[in-house]
Amino acid sequence: MAHFVKPCYPLLFVFFLSLLQSILTTQEGEALLKWKNSLAPSSFLDSWSLTNLDNLCNWTGITCNSAGSVSKINLFEKQLDGMLSEFGYTSFPNLNNLTLAYNFFSGPIPPAIENLTQLQYLDFSNNYLDGPIPFQVSHLQSLLILNLSQNALQAPNWSHFSPMPFLRILNLSHNPLSSKFPNFISNSHSLTHLSLNYNEFTGDLVSESIFANLHNLQVLSLVGNSFEGSFPPDIFKLSKLKHLSLSRNKFSGSIPNDIRLLCDLEYLYLGNNSFEGPLPPNIFKLSKLKHLFLWGNKFSGSVSNDIGLLSELETLDLRSNFFEGTLPPNLFKLSKLKILSLYENNFSGFISKDIGLLSELESLDLGSNFFEGPLPPHIFRLSKLRDLGLSDNRNLFEGSIPIGLGLLTNLMFLDLYSSNLSGYIPSEIGNLKLLVLLDLRSNQFTGPLSKIISNLTNLIFLDVSYNSLSGNIQSDLWIYNDHPTLEFINLGGNHFTGELPTTICNVTSLSVLDLSNNELSGALPNCLGNLADGLLFINLANNQFRGTVPTTFSRSCQLTYLNMDNNEFEGLLPPSLENCKHLRILDMGNNKIGGTFPSWLYVLGELEVLVLRSNKLYGTISARSIEDPFPKLRIVDLSNNQFTGHLPIQYFKNMKSTDNLYSYENDRGIYYAYDEAAVPLTVKGTEYEVRNNLHIYTIIDLSCNKFLGEIPKVTGELIWLALLNLSHNSLTGPIPSLLRNMKELQSLDLSSNQLTGAIPPQLTALTYLEVLNLSGNHLSGEIPQKGQFSTFNNDSYLGNSALCGSPLTKKCANTASPPQEVGNVDEDDAGDELTWEAILMGYGCGLICGLSSAYIVLKLGKPWWFVRYIEVLQLKLMKRYA
Ligand SMILES: *[C@@H]1O[C@H](CO)[C@@H](O)[C@H](O)[C@H]1NC(C)=O
Ligand SMILES: *[C@@H]1O[C@H](CO)[C@@H](O)[C@H](O)[C@H]1NC(C)=O
Ligand SMILES: *[C@@H]1O[C@H](CO)[C@@H](O)[C@H](O)[C@H]1NC(C)=O
Ligand SMILES: *[C@@H]1O[C@H](CO)[C@@H](O)[C@H](O)[C@H]1NC(C)=O
Ligand SMILES: *[C@@H]1O[C@H](CO)[C@@H](O)[C@H](O)[C@H]1NC(C)=O
Ligand SMILES: *[C@@H]1O[C@H](CO)[C@@H](O)[C@H](O)[C@H]1NC(C)=O
Ligand SMILES: *[C@@H]1O[C@H](CO)[C@@H](O)[C@H](O)[C@H]1NC(C)=O
Ligand SMILES: *[C@@H]1O[C@H](CO)[C@@H](O)[C@H](O)[C@H]1NC(C)=O
Ligand SMILES: *[C@@H]1O[C@H](CO)[C@@H](O)[C@H](O)[C@H]1NC(C)=O
Ligand SMILES: *[C@@H]1O[C@H](CO)[C@@H](O)[C@H](O)[C@H]1NC(C)=O
Questions:
Q1: Given CB 3.0 to 4.6 Å as the disulfide criterion, which of 65, 118, 716, 846 pairs with 639?
Q2: Is 653:714 a contact under the CB 8 Å cutoff?
Q3: What are 134-190's pLDDT values in tens digits?
């Protein structure tokens, strides 16, 4: 019997198995459909349907094992939108690979994920998942690879996580995880790759236990967090490490000599921390090192000739440190070097002709050092160069641009900013057809710019400002044709003449146009207003433009900065400017603009600086029922017009100081940054500029008009005001004692009015007051003596015949107090230093403002967009970048 039945067992078994299998398949298919129905409809999942259940293993993104059960779900970049809550976590007993990367999944990761017990590979990266990462993820004990990067996940209580003994790759980068280093990681000892880049992790990493067990680690990447403390000593136990990135944290102290223990290291990124001291000698024993990034630290000392031992080196980035001394000769033996940046250090001496040996170089930046010239012509043999920075070296060149530069035909970035160059711009520059960025700022170039630039059809940034270039921009149509890429033109501070041709309006790619401080003339093409749909920044200040301001600013106007100060514009301010809702700085000062105060200005809610001084504006500044006018204004200068009626101070009562840096990003991700608009101040014929910290100044200047009536009490609400000038009007009545509330006031000028009454003694509470001018009024009584008032001299009070007391010679009738030692203005301080006192001495009407342009940009002159571009370039040049 037994042997009769026996043969049937396998058959039966197979039958049952396949029955089970088809039940499982149905269950898996139904689970997928249930989840699909919870998602936004997507054509990518068309094959997922009940009618197609038999074909489960051929559904989009589904892979089955040999038994026909789902083993892999790969929905990489399928534009899926929905949550993970309806996923059938208990329905896939054989699933070992789940990839949902690059979709639009949102919401939390459900704790039920722990039921995908066979998972080896889990990739949820590049979605919109949020909430704390559930500790159940760590119950997936078969996981080899876990990628949760690029989401909005938050830090859980990591102490609920179990170590993951088989995990090899853990990627939590680009989330807002803020916590200390997660402790479960320290015990996941199979890890070979760990990335916590761009989170908000904090704390130091000096504790014994953090890296001690991670002896398989090859890649450790902690870029862009807030880790602090000294170089984590346990890292030296990671003897298999190939790639170490600690960039963009707050690490400090020196690099220990033990670094040589990392003898497999190929990538060492330590940029933008606070590391200091000389480089440890053993760093040059890392013979496999390919990329060394030390930029943005405080490293010092000279670079040892042992650098030549790093024969595999492709990148050496020492930018922005305090290195000094001459370049070590063996540097030029690093024949694989592609990127060499020494920008912003204290290196000195001659550049050896051996630089020509670095034939693989693609990026070379020697800028902002103390190198001496002449530049060896061997540099022009570096034919692979794409990026050359020689800026801000006083002595590198002998006068003019070496024509050999024209040989570097692969150049995309050329930075010769502030290099003491003169002469004509050689036509050889026209050979550099790939040039994207040309920065010739702040040299002494002469002659025209014409022709040369017309060959540079890939140019995006052109900055030739602050030279002595000349020529007629109208006839030299160098720029306006065939420049589909040009975004940034700065010709400011030269001697260009002629009219702005209408063809400028064809350069629709423009974001920044700066023609200030030239000798340009004629009327502006009206189409300039249309161009403002793309333009962010127009500076035409200090030219001889005439005619009316263009009237065609459209509703899509993007302008944030418009400066036409000191030209000969006339007519009205065009009401279409009200379309430029993003305007932050509007300077029309020193023109011949007429009409009444443009009431549409109230609509510009972003306005921070409004300068209309020295024009022909007249009439009262009318009350208009606007709830919260000018919420962001911090500088207003209406001086030297014909305004009349009551002081319009109530419109400016929102004034505050701000800390905003004037910067913005365009839709191509390119940054422009300007520091605060610089304010040139004319002091006794000499121009000073307050370039820094303008943002701390809030200024109201209504001087030299025909304002009438009393100083309104609302003035006392301007508690942020640093400067108030109401001089040369026809104001009457007393000085309100409420002015004492203006605690930040540094300068108060009420001179040449018809003010009466006594000087309120409460004003002695203004502790920052450095300048006071009350002269030319009808004030009477005793001059207060306390506080800052003891520092003012009699100029402050002249022409008020009824005032008495120190510092005036006229004694008060019934004062008993002994003659006071007048607080002299400290003669020692009257040197070069720019004080408010110095600024305000000896001006008449319309003292201040007139905003000159200012792309002064990042610290020490390197523009952000440039730095950004270099980074982009480096990205292109290197496979990995962190
Ligand atoms: C899987 O689907 C493709 C088309 O989407 C089809 O060509 C192929 O024959 C199908 N395979 C099976 C086994 O059904
Ligand atoms: C899982 O799938 C991804 C994407 O198809 C693949 O790159 C990876 O090698 C797979 N991993 C495993 C462990 O099967
Ligand atoms: C995992 O599945 C089991 C069995 O279906 C269930 O009881 C448990 O709640 C699930 N886990 C979670 C965290 O939901
Ligand atoms: C997620 O990270 C893993 C491991 O680093 C990697 O293999 C995978 O390609 C990443 N996913 C994406 C979408 O880049
Ligand atoms: C982490 O995942 C991202 C994709 O989001 C990938 O680009 C990156 O290379 C991964 N990092 C590591 C160290 O694997
Ligand atoms: C995290 O969990 C541990 C263990 O349950 C607990 O002792 C600790 O207080 C928790 N920490 C926080 C910040 O909640
Ligand atoms: C370094 O990072 C800080 C922020 O931590 C930033 O302000 C600074 O500009 C960076 N330095 C450089 C040189 O990029
Ligand atoms: C670098 O040069 C600057 C300017 O000459 C100087 O102030 C600074 O002290 C120097 N730094 C070092 C570390 O030599
Ligand atoms: C501009 O390009 C043309 C054609 O490529 C070339 O003949 C001419 O010499 C170039 N001009 C300059 C100034 O380099
Ligand atoms: C400027 O654009 C206008 C209209 O798009 C076109 O007619 C004109 O030829 C262009 N001018 C130049 C110089 O390209």
A1: 846
A2: yes
A3: 999 999 999 999 999 999 999 999 999 999 999 999 999 999 999 999 999 999 999
State the residue for tokens 């207060």.
Answer: 784
Q: Confidence class of residue 574 from pLDDT cuts 50, 70 and 90?
A: very high
CATH code of 699-811+835-845, in short, is: 3.80.10.10
- Is there an atom of ligand 8 within 6 Å of 346 CB? yes
Tell me which CATH code domain 1-163 carries.
3.80.10.10
What element of type H or E holds 869? helix 864-877
Distance separating alpha carbons of residues 667 and 234, to the nearest angstrom? 43
- Of 411, 436, 425, nearest in space to 464 by CA: 425
CA atoms within 13 A on the CB side of 451: 8
Q: What is the DSSP string of 200-230?
A: --EEE--STTTTTT-TT--EEE--SSEEEEE
Helix-then-strand count for the chain, H and E: 6, 60
pTM of the model: 0.78
Instruction: List all residues 6 or more positions away from 817 whose beta carbon is below 8 Å from its beta carbon.
Output: none
The CB of 221 under 6 Å from ligand 5? The reply is yes
Could you check whether the bond before residue 281 is cis, i.e. omega within 30 degrees of 0?
no
Under 8 Å between Cβ of 72 and 94: no
Average pLDDT over residues 527-541: 84
Measure Cα distances from 744 to 94, 227, 653, 721, 759 in Å. Answer: 71, 38, 14, 6, 19
Position 691 confidence tier, pLDDT thresholds 50, 70, 90: very low
CA–CA gap between residue 116 and residue 119 (Å, rounded): 6
Atom of ligand 9 nearest to the CA of 431: 14
Of the two residues 466 and 479, the one the predictor is more confident about is: 466
For the cut 90, the answer to whether the pLDDT of residue 112 exceeds it is: yes
> Of the ranges 553-562, 724-733, 811-820, which is most confident?
724-733
> Do the two domains 1-163 and 699-811+835-845 of this chain adopt the same fold?
yes
Contact 364, 385 (CB under 8 A): yes
For residue 147, the CA-to-ligand 4 centroid distance in Å is: 6
Confidence band for 453, pLDDT divided at 50, 70 and 90: confident
Per-residue 3-state assignment (H helix, E strand, C coil) for 412-427: CEEECCCCCCEECCCH
**Binding site membership of 497 for ligand 2 (Cβ less than 6 Å):** no
Rounded to 5 degrees, φ, ψ at 291 are -130, 120
Q: Where are the domains of the chain?
A: 1-163, 660-696+852-882, 699-811+835-845
Residue 114 CA to ligand 3 centre (angstroms) = 8
The minimum-distance atom of ligand 2 relative to the CA of 145 is 13
Measured between alpha carbons, how far is residue 233 from residues 185, 205, 293 in Å?
A: 17, 8, 19
Q: Which atom of ligand 4 is nearest to the CA of 195?
A: 5
How far apart CA 256 and CA 282 sit, in angstroms, is 9
Residue whose tokens read 């790619």: 509
Give the closest residue to 849 by CA, choosing from 535, 552, 638: 638
User: d(Cα 466, Cα 478) in Å, to the nearest integer?
Assistant: 19
Q: What is the pLDDT of residues 611-631, one digit of tens each?
A: 898 999 999 987 666 677 888
> 541, 852 in Cβ contact below 8 A?
yes
Considering only CA atoms, which of 700, 584, 612, 599 is closest in space to residue 649?
700
CB 470 within 8 A of CB 494: yes
Pocket perturbation via mutation, ligand 5, pick of 148, 195, 217, 244 by most ligand atoms within 8 A of CB? 195
Intra-chain end-to-end CA distance of the chain, in Å: 73
Label residue 705 exposed, middle or buried (CB < 10 Å: 0-12, 13-18, 19+). Answer: buried
Looking at ligand 3, which residue's alpha carbon is closest to its atom 11? 112
